[in-house]
Amino acid sequence: MEFKELILSKAHQLGFDLAGICCPEYSPTDHSKLLNWLEAGYQGEMAFMERNPRLRSDLRLFMENVQSVISVGINYFKEPDYQKDKPYVSIYARGKPYQDVVKNKLQELLDYIKRLTPEAEGKIAVDTSPTLDKLWAEKAGLGWRGKNTLVINKKIGSFIFLGELFLNIKIEPDVAESDHCADCRKCLDICPTGALEEPHLLNSTKCISYMTIEANNPPADQKLIDNHIFGCDLCQIICPYNKNASTTTIPEFQPGDIYSMEIDKWINLTENDFQSRYMGTILGKYGFSRCTNNVKMAMNNLAID
Ligand code: B12
Ligand code: SF4
Ligand code: SF4
Predict the structure, then answer these.
(1) Worst-scoring range by mean pLDDT, 10-14, 93-97, 265-269?
(2) Could you tell me where the beta strands, DSSP code E, fall in the chain?
(3) Where are the domains of the chain?
(4) Which residue owns the Cα nearest ligand 1 atom 50?
(5) How many Cβ atoms from other residues are within 10 Å of residue 264's Cβ?
(6) Is 126 in the pocket of ligand 2 (CB under 6 A)?
(7) How far is CA 112 from CA 70, 217, 232, in A?
(8) How high is the pLDDT of residue 284?
(9) Which residues sit with their C-beta closer than 6 Å to ligand 3?
């Protein structure tokens, strides 16, 4: 097998469903899209998005001698069992922090590459790193940017986490995927808060995911979060490309007892119960007080006192 094939097949062996390669070129057009987004204030209180935007778009500032990007995607899909009259926790938050899972696998991939090519050096990025995960995934052919702004793969859908391994060695790039949204607008139509201002443009300050996870204060109108306790999946659940998604096989993404919890269990949730149930999950990482604040708002909205 050729070097590139060996790497991509190792990535699949490690549990990544998708892996592709692209060049780390700086694009002034993509950078100005990020600047316009920030200028419009769509980041809300996410100060980390405002810090050094050039670093986010220009990989040479993140890794001086970067020559190639390996972008990876891992399926975290689980049947969302969304019900309008029940409290809802988005499926991404039900498992262990994906950042650690993806980072560990990318570290194994880097170790493997170093065994093949001892001069190889690499840097790993997943979510919290100052990089544009979706941009590299698009360029490496993992999927296209849906109108809901997420990266969608035609076969496995959009319930995928993304990460990158930046390398100081050149590898032949893959071809970017074309857009398959066509004239569909289902995600824009279902978004209950109008957060998708236009196709491909998300205003975080209106997004339930932001309101329940990132914002420092509850939204002025608490009704906006409806029945959502943590995150929002509506613009993914409706997407036709997620209709045939298969349940993840990654052990760390198997959910705990989040969904089987009855409404009264949410209402009576104690800190001890929260710790023992959710310790080690993404929901647990964000803490009891954020969770209970969201629970209170959702219960009010569901008219349950
Ligand atoms: C900030 C952030 C958020 C914010 C803002 C989301 C957003 N769309 O930007 C909030 C808190 C709302 C959020 C929510 C969620 N997030 Co988030 N988030 C991020 C983070 C940290 C940065 C994203 C970013 O750079 N935004 C800045 C803006 C400028 O980027 P953008 O929307 O992609 O904007 C571009 C487009 O608008 C594009 N553009 C403009 N016009 C046009 C026109 C066309 C035709 C095209 C193609 C493009 C285009 O240009 C812009 C600049 O490149 C990334 C991790 C990372 N480091 O990248 C995860 C990430 C995007 N999130 C992720 C996830 C899973 C979620 C949630 C599903 C969680 C949940 N269940 O609640 C939701 C989904 C909401 C949604 N519909 O996007 C995953 C997405 C995986 C995927 N398949 O794409 C990521 C990649 C984390 C990861 N490593 O896996 N998130
Ligand atoms: S995550 Fe929810 S609120 Fe945010 S854009 Fe999608 S449907 Fe709208
Ligand atoms: S719902 Fe339709 S428009 Fe939205 S991302 Fe999916 S295919 Fe594209």
Answers:
(1) 265-269
(2) 18-22, 68-75, 88-89, 122-125, 144-145, 151-152, 160-167, 196-198, 201-202, 228-230
(3) 3-167, 186-245+254-301
(4) 33
(5) 9
(6) no
(7) 13, 45, 36
(8) 92
(9) 146-148, 152, 181, 184-187, 238-241
